[in-house]
TrEMBL record, chain A:
Superkingdom assignment: Bacteria
InterPro entries cross-referenced by the UniProt entry: AAA+_ATPase, ABC_transporter-like_ATP-bd, ABC_transporter-like_CS, ABC_transpr_LolD-like, MacB-like_ATP-bd, P-loop_NTPase
Name of the protein described by the UniProt record: ABC transporter ATP-binding protein
Gene3D superfamilies: P-loop containing nucleotide triphosphate hydrolases
CDD domains membership: ABC_MJ0796_LolCDE_FtsE
Single GO term (MF): ATP binding
A Pfam family that the UniProt record links to this protein: ABC_tran
Boundaries of every ABC transporter domain copy: 16-253
Keyword line: ATP-binding, Nucleotide-binding, Transport
UniProtKB/TrEMBL annotation, chain B:
InterPro entries to which the protein is assigned, alphabetical: ABC3_permease_C, MacB_PCD, Macrolide_Exporter_MacB
Subcellular location: Cell membrane
Top-level taxonomy: Bacteria, Bacillati, Actinomycetota, Actinomycetes, Kitasatosporales
Organism the protein comes from: Streptomyces antimicrobicus
Domain MacB-like periplasmic core: 17-237, 494-683
Transmembrane segments: 270-294, 317-341, 361-384, 410-432, 438-460, 495-518, 721-746, 774-795, 815-834
Main location: membrane
Keyword Transmembrane tagged: yes
Superkingdom of origin: Bacteria
Membrane topology qualifier: Multi-pass membrane protein
Protein name per UniProt: ABC transporter permease
One matching Pfam family: MacB_PCD
Signal peptide: none
Length: 257, 849
């Protein structure tokens, strides 16, 4: 069997690259292959969505590329750094300095104000925030009036905007989003996705987002489809309908095969 | 419902671990105390019963030489004639007469062997087969003539004495040298407790302790078939009026009762500390059940929704507590029995005290008490959380609410705590104003103050911890800042955790402050009030010095001034007042007596000196007269020659010339003699005194420094015992900190996962948990130290009058150590929770809902 290396449409710089990436849980009879020899590039300054039915391995792929999870074989690079050889401490530092995260469950610290939550990764790193950049980010996500609020005083959409600002604030090389709109109503979700797209278009940020929502995927520049731990297809300049059709096709194939 | 409770216990094994441990420790303390004292009590009774084995009747006489009117009776004890008459009674097999008193044995350096108060000498009284059944000789035999002695095996071993060696033995008189004829073992309780025993031949013992031809006690054994009661009836008429006779069985029963009383006193003391431990444990259990119930809100609401009554839900939580209580109490009981066995071993190795052998006694009462205490304590602690479950509405099963609002108004609680605290403080001040009568008032006030503060702790925790937050974030960065915020996230839980530590530290601090202040007071007295260089007393501090001691010293070279300190009494207005007999010529050089009226020299003219306060209350002043009755019944009208400032602890309120006081006493009691030497407090000075006394092992010569050290040692020992006993309560409060942290880590799994994802490394996650723990521990410690210090001040006020020179001394070194220890405790308590936080799997942590 041949595997295709899924590269971005146009020749351009690569922010993150997985090559022959495999992740296997368990052994023998109970062995589960979560990722099977996946090779994919995520282009710099691009908004990529990873789609697939549940259990397809889309989250695992993101976790491995983002340095949150270990993998069985293959290689992952973020910029020039090969993740496979890093120890926990180095991985932590890599995540701190080069990667931003947006989680489905917002994951803000309830004891900190919105602003403190936004600057948390920089505080951890002991770095001073670039004030001008911070202002730009905060203005973009529209949180200017709510910086002193605590997460419990914010709506879900506002909380996720704080999370987006947190991911953007330290100007990471790449931002990973794990179903960032999963817990939001469609309007708030659209807002958050809009911010992400703007950050790519206007600020040159790189974003990789896992989602199962075709509408969310339509905000991306490119969609990568996963099934059974393999990349089965990709789509550039997606539309919601196009993505939905493609997904339906996989679904049907899955049922007949 | 009970099955649900049981399942819940099993499902939350790990989270209940600390609760089980806390109850187990408390119950182990209780059952260990009961088993240990029961065992000891039974062994001691067994031992005393054994010493009366074969004794059908025992006769004793502590007759005095004079009757209460001072008329000579000539009845110092039981005469040889009486002994012979008893021997002739029908049914009597053997009669042995005994006479005993103090006897100290010196080692080769002249130092006393064994503990002072337990060193006894008695006569070797062989009966018909030429042996005394009380003593089993392992070497040689009993003393047969003057100049011979036998020693108990342990004393002989310590002094490295062998049969034929010369041994220096001191009784209340001068030291004498004896030849060792034998080494023996005995069942005697004092010897088993580490004392020494010297056996003399009967005439020597009689001469030393009583008067030739007289005994203190007779042990009568019966011929087979003779009844002890019949013998008693036959013997009684033969005795003098001061003698009492009892059967051996009666005496054994009396002694067993006395032992039991003594033991129950000891067990009550220990149980108080066990109670404190259990009380502290309640806080931990309360926290655990509060959290377990909070986590199960949805589940419990579901039970309500499907038809469980409010009472059923409450009962299911209580049943869960009951199960936990039974399990922990059972483990506690078993560990308690182990503890009792260990305690016995510890006493033997650490205190060199031989415990009499005997079987372990696990009374049914102990088992019942242990289980009951474990169950009741656990259920009481779970009562409030259980009651709260009753208020969970069934609709909560549908909602997503999964933690009850912790920000629920604290107003009511704060008002209640404030009132309680103020009431406590008020009562404490009231007690302080009452002086010596206010002791219990202060104790009650302190109790309410503590309760009030515990109730107020959630309120206090916020500003206090907020105050240290900037420091923590400056020193430790993000982990420090987050730790301080996490510590007040659940103020109630933090408060309960800190409270249990605060209780222990309050007691420890209060005791330390009072103990150290007491020690300082005594220290100050010996420096300010005592001018003598040395105090001469009997070793072990009990018993009277011989009359010759002061005279011998006065004549010895290098001695400047000597005064005996005879303790006696005067009968004034039909009540007995204690009186001191001193040497009027020298007392001024030995004690710092401040005369406020008259002249001390008047003592030499047979006049009396009276302490100022006593003089005031009795309406006496220099020049007035007072009617007194002496110990021998003689009455006299004494002129008050001097009034002096009270010297509590050194001089009685009435002071006379020793010659006058002793002249009216058959056996003047001289606990100490004060000495000033030409060489001052020095090696040479001490040698002059020791040599003058003939290097007597039974007499202790203490310099002022020795006295100070001795007092310091006493204070330290007392405090160390307290620390040891409170240790269990402190261990349980440490478990409480572990418990709280484990809960926090569990609840914040998702947060910790996020922090790890955005770049907080494992080390700093650990630091965050550790710092939270240290913050909570220090909060409790500082509060405890503050309250303890306040209570020590208040307590001190109530007895400062009865302890001369008492002033509040804050032992900052000790307090510093306590606070430091609390910080260390914080770090240690965080060890396991911090590690599990650092090891959290990031991905599962983030996903945990």
């Amino acid at each position: 069997m041949t595997t295709t290396h899924y590269a971005p449409h146009t020749a351009q710089a690569v922010a993150a690259r997985a090559t022959g990436l495999s992740k296997v849980y368990g052994q023998g009879e109970t062995q589960v292959v979560a990722l099977d020899n996946v090779s994919v590039d995520f282009g710099r300054g691009r908004f990529t969505a990873i789609m697939g039915p549940s259990g397809s391995g889309k989250s695992t792929l993101m976790h491995c590329v983002a340095g949150l999870d270990t993998f069985t074989s293959g290689s992952v690079r973020i910029g020039d750094t090969e993740l496979g050889s890093l120890k926990d401490k180095q991985l932590t530092r890599l995540r701190r300095d080069k990667i931003g995260f947006i989680f489905q469950a917002f994951n803000l610290l309830p004891t900190l104000t919105a602003l403190e939550n936004i600057t948390l990764p920089m505080d951890i790193a002991g770095r001073k925030a670039d004030q001008q950049w911070l202002d730009t980010v905060i203005e973009m996500v529209g949180l200017s009036g709510r910086l002193g609020h605590r997460p419990t005083q914010l709506s879900g959409g506002q909380q996720q905007r704080v999370a987006v600002a947190r991911a953007l604030a330290s100007r990471p090389e790449i931002i990973f989003g794990d179903e960032p709109t999963g817990n939001l109503d469609s309007r708030s979700g659209a807002e958050v996705l809009g911010f992400l797209r703007n950050s790519v278009r206007e600020l040159g940020q790189t974003v990789v987002m896992v989602t199962h929502d075709p509408v969310a995927a339509s905000y991306a520049d490119r969609v990568v489809f996963l099934a059974d731990g393999r990349i089965v297809d990709e789509m550039h300049g997606p539309t919601a309908d196009g993505v939905l059709d493609r997904m339906k096709a996989f679904d049907a194939k899955g049922r007949t095969s | 419902m009970f099955r649900t409770a049981l399942r819940n216990v099993l499902a939350h094994k790990a989270r209940l671990l600390m609760t089980v441990l806390a109850v187990t420790l408390g119950v182990a303390f209780v059952s260990g105390t009961l088993v240990f004292t029961d065992t000891l009590s039974k062994a001691l009774s067994g031992q005393s019963a054994k010493s009366y084995e074969g004794v059908a009747v025992s006769v004793s006489s502590y007759g005095t030489a004079r009757d209460e009117n001072g008329v000579k009776e000539g009845d110092p004890g039981i005469s040889q004639q009486v002994l012979d008459k008893v021997k002739a009674v029908k049914g009597v097999d053997t009669v042995s007469g005994r006479v005993s008193g103090f006897a100290g044995v010196g080692d080769e350096n002249g130092k006393l062997i064994g503990t002072g108060w337990a060193n006894q000498g008695t006569n070797y009284a062989p009966v018909k087969d030429g042996k005394d059944p009380r003593y089993a000789f392992t070497e040689g035999g009993g003393p047969a003539s003057a100049g011979q002695i036998a020693l108990d095996r342990e004393t002989a071993r310590k002094g490295a004495y062998k049969v034929g060696d010369k041994v220096r033995v001191a009784t209340n008189g001068p030291v004498k040298e004896y030849t060792l004829t034998g080494v023996f073992t005995t069942d005697d309780g004092q010897v088993n407790a580490g004392g020494s025993m010297v056996l003399f031949d009967t005439p020597t013992a009689q001469a030393l302790y009583l008067q030739p031809g007289f005994y203190r006690e007779l042990s009568v054994s019966a011929k087979p078939g003779a009844s002890a009661d019949q013998l008693l009836a036959d013997i009684k008429p033969l005795l003098g009026k001061n003698a009492t006779a009892k059967t051996g069985a009666e005496l054994a029963a009396e002694q067993a009762k006395a032992i039991e009383q003594q033991m129950s006193g000891m067990s009550t003391g220990l149980l108080i500390f066990a109670g404190i431990s259990l009380f502290v444990g309640i806080f931990l259990i309360y926290n655990t059940f509060t959290m377990l119930v909070a986590q199960r809100t949805k589940e419990l609401a579901l039970l309500r929704a499907v038809g469980a009554a409010r009472g059923q839900v409450i009962r299911s939580v209580l049943a869960e507590a009951g199960v936990v209580g039974v399990v922990s109490a059972t483990i506690g009981l078993v560990s308690g029995i182990g503890l009792a066995i260990g305690m016995r071993g510890l006493m033997e190795t650490a205190f060199d005290a031989k415990m009499p052998a005997g079987d372990l006694v696990v009374a049914p009462g102990t088992v019942v008490a242990a289980v009951l205490i474990g169950v009741v304590v656990t259920m009481i602690a779970a009562l409030l959380p259980a009651w709260r479950t009753g208020r969970i509405p069934p609709v909560a099963a549908m909602g997503s609410a999964h933690l009850p609002a912790t920000g629920k108004s604290l107003v009511l609680r704060n008002v209640f705590g404030g009132v309680l605290g103020l009431l406590g403080a008020g009562v404490t001040f009231l007690g302080v104003s009452q002086g010596s009568d206010g002791r219990y008032t202060v104790a009650a006030g302190g109790f309410f103050l503590m309760l009030g503060l515990i109730v107020l702790l959630p309120l206090l925790s916020k500003p206090v911890i907020a105050a240290v937050r900037p420091l923590l974030s400056r020193l430790f960065g993000v982990p420090g800042k987050l730790a301080a915020q996490n510590a007040v996230r659940n103020p109630r839980r933090t408060a309960v955790t800190a409270a249990s530590l605060a209780i222990g530290l309050t007691l420890v601090t209060a005791m330390s402050v009072i103990g150290v202040s007491m020690g300082k007071a005594v220290d100050r007295m010996s420096t300010d009030k005592l001018k003598a260089d040395y105090k001469v007393s009997m070793s072990g501090g009990i018993g009277s010095l011989d009359k010759s001691v002061a005279e011998t010293l006065a004549k010895a070279p290098g001695i400047k001034a000597v005064s005996p300190q005879t303790a006696g009494y005067l009968k004034i207005n039909d009540t007995f007042k204690s009186a001191s007999g001193v040497n009027p010529a020298t007392i001024g050089q030995l004690l710092n007596v401040e005369v406020v009226g008259g002249d001390l020299a008047a003592l030499g003219r047979g006049e009396v000196a009276v302490a100022e306060k006593t003089a005031r209350s009795a309406g006496l002043s220099a020049g007035s007269t007072v009617d007194v009755g002496y110990e021998d019944g003689t009455k006299a009208k004494l002129k008050v020659g001097a009034v002096y400032k009270d010297l509590d602890g050194l001089l009685s309120p009435y002071v006379l010339d020793d010659k006058v006081l002793s002249a009216h006493s058959e056996e003047p009691y001289i606990p100490e003699v004060y000495v000033k030497v030409a060489a001052g407090e020095s090696k040479a000075g001490e040698k002059a005194v020791v040599d003058a006394l003939g290097n007597n092992p039974a007499i202790t010569v203490a310099s002022r420094q020795d006295m100070r050290n001795e007092m310091g040692g006493l204070v330290n020992t007392a405090l160390n015992i307290m620390y040891g006993l409170l240790g269990m309560a402190l261990i349980i409060s440490v478990l409480g900190v572990v418990n709280t942290l484990a809960m926090s880590v569990f609840e914040r799994t998702q947060e910790i996962g996020m922090l790890r994802a955005v770049g907080l490394d494992r080390g700093r996650v650990k630091n965050m948990i550790r710092l939270e723990s240290v913050v909570i521990s220090l909060f409790g410690a500082v509060l405890g130290v503050a309250v303890g210090g306040f209570l020590a001040w208040a307590g001190g006020k109530t007895f400062s009058k009865s302890v001369p020179g008492y002033e509040l001394v804050l032992p900052f070194d000790r307090i510093g150590v306590f606070v430091l220890l609390a910080a260390v405790v914080g770090v240690l308590a965080a060890m396991w929770p911090a590690r599990s936080a650092a090891r959290l799997n990031m991905l599962t942590a983030i996903k945990t809902e």
